[in-house]
Automatic annotation (TrEMBL):
MF annotations from Gene Ontology: cysteine-type endopeptidase activity
One family name in Pfam for this protein: Peptidase_C1
Domain Cathepsin propeptide inhibitor: 29-89
Entry's EC annotation: 3.4.22.15
GO biological process, one term: proteolysis
Cleaved signal peptide residues: 1-15
Gene3D superfamilies in the cross-refs: Cysteine proteinases
CDD domains: Peptidase_C1A (cd02248)
Superkingdom classification of source: Eukaryota
Similarity-based family: Belongs to the peptidase C1 family.
Lineage: Eukaryota, Metazoa, Ecdysozoa, Arthropoda, Hexapoda
Name of the protein in its database record: cathepsin L
């Protein structure tokens, strides 16, 4: 971005014009299009996207000014969603799941022992977390959260980190009340794996971003599930399970996450309804933002290299501990 902005400044200076905020926004939009390989159907749409981008950038700049004054605990930034209205972002990336369906695939409630746990933990450092994935323009977060939890549990048991197939879940678990790109529940996906006696690996059954014909092959199984457990609904229980057992599938309200860049996300408006599944891979403490959950997302280049930190011990922020799922392998 700097090279584009500097070029604009040079051109403005050469023509004896005054550089203003609109000029900078225009330059940043050009860089945004190149960086995220954005193309639009016609000049009308490009103008519309430019205006949306500029309004979003103003929101980002205003928020980050508050961050600089110590009034916020996280920063916003430009990402692949910066040319979208909030309503468009929610329609494309967030699910409209029915919470009454959540428990139908649960085998039992896991109530962890009240044990001493470390002050921080990061399962990435222990080798239990695969690389960040990208669900694309498909509301398939439920599949990525399910595979992430199972990948971690399989690694902890076998010491083999095997990327698992979200597409297998997309194509084959519809009868478990999962709806492909229209949303679903990680618990249902893992129940399918339990009943199916396995899930294919990602190399044999790669992600396509849309529902197709079920092509599960028993010869390509990467992991199995024996039972599906719900973690008791409180943050202390979730912390104990993450510390003792490994990565856990969680569901959150992600409506306010469109512009998240870094830091500990803390927003009192974040709550019901849950609409996005992620993976809790650890927790810790930040000097500025306080206690946090470390969450792996499935939006590719977003946040902190595909991750975010969410405020912990702040009244179950974004409902992070309300729908936590642990596959037993």
């Amino acid at each position: 971005m700097k090279s584009v902005v500097f070029l604009l400044i040079a051109l403005v200076v050469a023509s004896n014009q005054t550089l203003n905020y609109e000029d900078v926004l225009a330059a940043e939009f050009e860089f945004f299009k190149m960086d995220y390989e954005k193309s639009y159907e016609n000049s009308y749409e490009e103008k519309l996207r430019s205006q949306i981008f500029k309004r979003n950038k103003e929101t980002i700049d205003e928020h980050n000014a508050r961050y600089a004054r110590g009034e916020e605990t996280y920063m916003m930034g430009i990402n692949q969603f910066s040319d979208m209205l909030a309503e468009e972002f929610q329609e494309m990336m967030l699910s409209n799941v029915n919470t009454s369906e959540f428990a139908s695939s649960i085998d039992f409630i896991y109530a962890p022992h009240n044990i001493d746990i470390p002050h921080e933990i990061d399962w990435r450092a222990k080798g239990a977390v695969t690389a960040v994935k990208n669900q694309g323009e498909c509301r398939s977060c439920w599949a990525f959260s399910a595979t992430g939890a199972l990948e971690g549990q399989h690694f902890i048991r076998t010491k083999q980190l095997i990327p698992l197939s979200e597409q297998n879940l997309m194509d084959c678990s519809a009868r478990y009340q999962n709806y492909g790109c229209r949303g679903g529940w990680p618990s249902h996906a893992l129940k399918y794996v339990e009943d199916n006696r396995g899930l294919d690996n990602d190399q044999a059954y790669p992600y396509e971003g849309h529902v197709g014909e079920c092509r599960f092959r028993r010869s390509s199984i990467g992991a199995t599930v024996s039972r599906v457990a719900q973690v008791r609904r409180d943050e202390n229980a979730l912390a104990q399970v993450v510390a003792e057992k490994g990565p856990v599938s969680v569901a959150v309200d992600a409506r306010r996450l469109q512009h998240y860049r870094s830091g500990v996300f803390n927003d009192p408006i974040c709550g019901d309804p849950v609409n996005h599944a992620m993976l809790a891979v650890g927790y810790g403490h930040d000097q500025r933002g306080g206690d946090f959950w470390l969450l792996k997302n499935s939006w590719g280049r977003w946040g902190e290299e595909g991750y975010m930190r969410l405020a912990r011990n702040h009244g179950n922020m974004c409902q992070v501990a309300s729908y936590a799922i642990l596959p037993i392998v």
